[in-house]
Amino acid sequence: MLSTTELLVSRPPITLSYSVPPSRSCFSFKSPNSSICMDTSTRTLPSPSLSLNCLSSELIALIFEQLRDLDSHALTSVRLVSKRLDAIAAPIAYRFLTLNEALVAPDAARRHPDVFRHISNLTNHVIIPSNLNSTGINSLLSCIKRLNSVRWRYVDGDVPVTGLWLPSCLRRLHNCDPNSTQLHIENLPLRREYENNLLETFIRSIPAELLTSLKLANSTPVLSTRLNSLKQLVVQARQLATLCYEDRGQGTCFNFSPGEKLSPINNLLLRSYDWQHTAEDVAEHWDFSGIQSLELISVPIFNFLKSVCLQDFSELHTLHAEDYSAHLSDKREDATVALNVLIKDHIKALEVLNITCHTQLFQLDAIAAHRNSLQVLRFRDHVGFSEDDQRCPTLPPSGLAGLGQQLKFVHTLELDLDTRLCDPFTFLRAVCAFPAVHTLTLHVQTMIQPLDEVAPGIDRDYEAAMKTFQLLVQEKQRLGVCTPWKHIAVNVGGWKRVMIRRLGGIWRRRNNMGIYAERCFVLERDTQSGKIAVHEEVCAEPTSHGGSPSP
User: Fold this and answer.
1) Which whole-number Å values give the CA distances from 461 to 219, 269, 454, 458, 498, in the listed order?
2) What's the number of CA atoms in the CB half-sphere (13 Å) around residue 142?
3) Contact, 234 vs 190, CB < 8 A?
4) CA dist 396 → 201, 442, 551 (Å)
């Protein structure tokens, strides 16, 4: 019989990576004359042991809330320590429930009566993978006394034997009050197999009155012929607060009819959306009065910014903007200027800023304006490193160091570094001026020139990455910074997790020899021992069903 932990907690996902041999608990920088190995474990004074019994139940509950997010297995195990901890942890452990085959089995309630009693009394939020049997799901949902939300999550390529069931099959949702029950749809599959009437049936099966969050799966083919059905759903969903739209290439956009208007959107992600709405269209059909998170990826940014009221975005805490203007006259410079105005003059307190722009036109004081709130900064140039003969604009080390002294709460940083434009050692030292940074992604160009001879056994990109890791670790130690590195990635030559490598004849021949321009080296610190190890990430070939590549 399965344990309670096995019933309630899913297995952790597998990370796709392989070690750069040999993967060590410390790393060495290979040079003809030296080999350096460092003990990077953090040394702290022993602290006095404290018992949880000394804390109030309210404080323990707050700790367990955090523990659930970090390690749900540990939260289930802590219930075995004492009756008091079990009484505090059980409501937290059962409040959010992810269904699995064991929980929806026909005899699950008979085999695990205590678990189902807790589910009935304590569970409020349920996550339902689409590959489970709908009969067992309905049986379990029927016993929950206070159901506040259902999250239906499509599992790609894993259809139940009885066939894919529709959200309307969840009988518990038929009579729910929209003010007390929310429906979240994730990875909505608008693919070729759901065309025509089947697609219409699928979209119409979603109870629009309960729909709070809608996240699409990346579609194949593009959505241009099926957009009207989707538009009807989001217009009818008056509780919709989160919309994540996924398309491909240039994409398309909604064609609204008079009187159609979306509900106020709090979180909006548009990927490959060809924003052609005018200011009049936005005023009539969109509502950004409550927007808090905005992500525009492969979207014509200038078209968007000139059509909206910038004052509506004052409460943004997350902004992600990657321009796409290849189908227009180039408006990227204008978009950079508009982004500068939005960030500096209209947004009050950004926590996450992720933009790709003309960095030389963007004023750093617009970033510094968020010194009291900014935690994640990803700041990249359109040029990038996918072409051998282009130089990528790089922040001057002096400006970067000045920014680091102001942004005291930034813990995650992503930047371009073209070593042909500035001294890399000075630049890396400036990175270490960010006092709280522990996660860093550096984009660099490959050290291999297309026509250079490559000596056997020499890996210049690997050696350069090891030298970068070494300098960053030693510089933090020299500065006596209290925040050690947790994760550093050196992204070489425009590497992506899903990518097509360089297509030139010279690079094709080199690829056949196992020599690549696109690589990614990662340094990670073990949270328990404090020691570090290095590995190289593996990319995947693009597939017809895959989403847009992510860096």
Assistant:
1) 36, 35, 12, 9, 20
2) 11
3) no
4) 56, 15, 23
Q: Is the pTM of this model over 0.90?
A: no
Sign of CA dihedral 529, 532, 534, 537: positive
Whose tokens are 């067992």? That residue is 136
CA atoms within 13 A on the CB side of 354: 16
Structure tokens at 197: 């009437």
What are the residue boundaries of the structural domains of the chain, listed by start? 99-249, 256-374, 414-448+469-540
Residue 226 and residue 213: Cα distance in Å, rounded? 20
Nearest Cα to Cα of residue 517 among 542, 541, 500, 534: 500
Residues 107 and 139 sit within 8 Å (Cβ to Cβ)? no
- pLDDT of res. 354: 98
Q: By the 8 A CB rule, do 228 and 203 touch?
A: no
Q: pLDDT tens digit string along 307-341?
A: 999 999 999 999 999 987 655 657 889 999 999 99
Cα 98 from Cα 11, distance rounded (Å): 12
Q: CA dihedral in degrees (110, 113, 119, 122; nearest 10)?
A: 160
Cis peptide before 542 (omega within 30 of 0): no
Token match 């404090």: residue?
Answer: 530
223 pLDDT higher than 90: no
DSSP state of 492: E
Beta strands (DSSP E) in 304-457 are: 318-323, 352-357, 376-381, 412-416, 439-444
As a whole number of angstroms, the distance between CA 168 and CA 77 comes to: 36
| Dist CA 455 CA 474 (whole Å) | 30
| DSSP structural state of residue 49 | P
Per-residue confidence (pLDDT) for residue 198, from 0 to 100: 53
Q: Is 11 helix (H, G, I), strand (E, B) or coil?
A: coil
Q: What is the CA radius of gyration of the chain?
A: 26
Handedness of CA 100, 102, 105, 110 (dihedral sign): negative
Beta bridge partners of residue 318, listed in sequence order? 293, 352
Residue pair 218/249 in contact (Cβ under 8 Å)? The answer is no
**How far is residue 371's CA from residue 404's CA, in Å, rounded to a whole number?**
10
Q: Report residue 79: phi and psi, to 5°.
A: -65, -20
Please give the single-letter amino acid code of residue 105. A
- Show the tokens assigned to 262: 């979306």
